[in-house]
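Write out this protein's structure.
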Amino acid sequence: MQRENIVSLWLGHFTSQSSFSSYIKEVYSDFGNVSSIFMESFHIQFIDNQFQETYYTSKVGSKEELLVGLSYDESYIDSIEIVDWSLYNSVIALYNFKYTGHVKSDGNMQFIGFYPYQ
């Protein structure tokens, strides 16, 4: 759901950059509809790519490794509750998007919350 000044965050663990890229790769149907494994897993119908950031590292990350450098990180990074960062090596951030879906994890990515940013 579009919502100004809200960022929704997902953390995940992938074995390679290629598997992460495949997970977020958008595919168009014959009817012009767009989807990805990520979108299907979390029942997201539309993502504005201008407001999406993704990051993958081959080593297990830390809060700083995964989030510092994302847009507006300083306005929400301290709001994130304690997470075992050692489990994750990838992040998806959707800006101006408030995820309110019921799916919290799909085995690849885990929704960790939405946060105000400026």
